[in-house]
């Protein structure tokens, strides 16, 4: 079931050891597929066009998402708040546990 209204659906990726793979290891196609699965089919192509891989995604600021991808403001806000920011937080937490 996809929730295209607010984009808060957790995108489904291959799960490793009960956890989603580290976004830092994602290729550009993984990033595109993540956003397509999250209900942002149209906006996902912007990530591909800008060659945003997982490492780049984790470095993106709110301003990068809102202005750098040339996507509409509404979807851009949802993408950043419900996906980019949580992925960044998850990555930081998982790396903190490794150290």
UniProtKB/TrEMBL annotation:
Domain SAM, chain residue ranges per copy: 26-74
GO biological process, one term: negative regulation of DNA-templated transcription
Record's GO cellular component terms: nucleus
Listed Pfam families: SAM_1
CDD domains assigned to the protein according to its UniProt record, in alphabetical order: SAM_Atherin-like
Gene Ontology terms for molecular function: chromatin binding; histone binding
PANTHER family tied to this protein: ATHERIN-RELATED, POLYCOMB GROUP PROTEIN
Designated name of the protein: SAM domain-containing protein
UniProt gene name: SAMD13
